[in-house]
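Please go through this chain and its backbone structure tokens and walk me through the local backbone shapes. Keep your notes short.
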Amino acid sequence: MKKIDYYIIKKFLGTFFFALALIIVVSVVFDFSEKVDDFIEKNAPINAILFDYYLNFIPYFSNLYTHLFVFIAVIYFTSKMATHSEVIAILSCGVSYRRLMRPYFVAASVIAIFTFALGNYVIPYANVNRLKFEEKYFNRQYRNTERNIHKQLASNVFVYLETYNTRSDRGSRFSLEKIEDGQLVSKMMADYIRWDTAKQKWTAHNYWIREVDGIKETISEGVDIDTTLNLFPEEFKRTHNIVESMPTPVLKKFINQEKSRGQESTNYYIELYRRSASPFSVFIMTIIGMALSTRKMRGGMGMHIGFGIALSFSYILFMQISKEFSISGSLQPMLGVWIPNIIYTIIAFFLYRMAPK
């Protein structure tokens, strides 16, 4: 590490955190002005607004668009160096362009590691309070509107509900089937089931049970019966963004559990793969930003920044488009998340080859 390395790393990280702080302040101001009516209408306490919402909103927003802040930082301070002929002086002293990239990659590595740690292990815990606050003060209480709900509780156990009321924790037209070797061995039906908070069990009302043993069948019925199922009321109250509040180890365990039940969701995989793709995009944006801004242009720094921001927003747009294709099933989740990185890696390579050396 030479003085020039420390000089560039200091400029990179300093500009990045300054741009991050500036954009966060602007975002918070706009967000508050948009939601202040909801705060007043729902009588949200100031402590809850500051500590439950904005204290957790800031790291979430920062981590979501880290690659954009990195790109702006690289474009800004490198363009300034190019305008002052510092890049020309460095290259004229015999420093290769590849060697010049080393401090950029060191700083990008620091940000990528920081982003990876936040996105996988820190922010999910912060999202718990943020999502609770949003549900309480912005959104109406979640109601499950699904009909004809089928769930697989184990490899041979299946549950059916016509509807489920999240307020009363009651499911109507309940059916529980157990199948072995492709044959039905037990079936239980009830008018409805309700979660008993005291017993932590389900209670089936107006039930009958059919047991099948070869050609022998027995049927029993009754008014109420307690039953233990690998099913909990919280599973009917999950919103699509619940995975944002799960650290990566918990998310992987949750995905495996849902997979064993035959209830895989594309959103789960998209969130999992996004947490590794996002830190990688920091390096892509660093290369593109450096390759664009080391060239001294007549338009000055404004041309670099304008073109750079347009390119970075095209990356975000393309990322959203590929995500929608994954949700619709047109693309595999991993491919949908990583396609923007793959394409912009190719763009970064060509810009690097074209950069003045």
Q: What stands out?
A: Residues 26 and 32 are 10 Å apart (CA to CA). The radius of gyration is 27 Å. Residues 3-139+264-354 form one domain. The beta strands are 149-154, 157-161, 163-165, 170-180, 183-196, 201-213, 216-227.
